[in-house]
Write a structure and sequence with these properties.
Helix content: 10-25%
Distance between the termini: 26 Å
Radius of gyration: 13 Å
Largest sheet: 6 strands, antiparallel
């Protein structure tokens, strides 16, 4: 439906990556807690995967999702969330991806 495929992962304290469950992603997408219409152009599609429109800034999406997941208790201290757009650097589950630096 949307132009961009986005991987959403929880990185644990040991650095292991885990696809965020679709229930978490859906909870974020359905809850307009940010009052920011820019996140309206997102669609959860599977565990660890969502689609987004071109106007969704990935750095803000990553920050907002991590904040929401922490508030809900999904992400613990020492863990972080990474939002990864399918692109041309590295791979996730066999897909080529571009990673955003942690903390964006």
């Amino acid at each position: 439906m949307f132009v961009r495929r986005i991987a959403v992962e929880r990185v644990d304290a040991e650095g292991a990556r885990h696809a965020c469950p679709i229930a978490w992603i859906d909870n974020f997408a359905m809850r307009n807690f940010t009052n920011d219409a820019v996140f309206d152009d997102t669609l959860p599609v599977a565990d660890g995967l969502m689609e987004a429109g071109n106007r969704v800034p990935l750095d803000r999406l990553q920050t907002a999702m991590e904040d929401w997941f922490r508030r809900k208790g999904y992400v613990k201290a020492g863990e972080r969330v990474e939002v990864i757009e399918t692109g041309n650097e590295g791979t996730v589950n066999g897909e080529t991806v571009t990673r955003l630096p942690p903390g964006l």
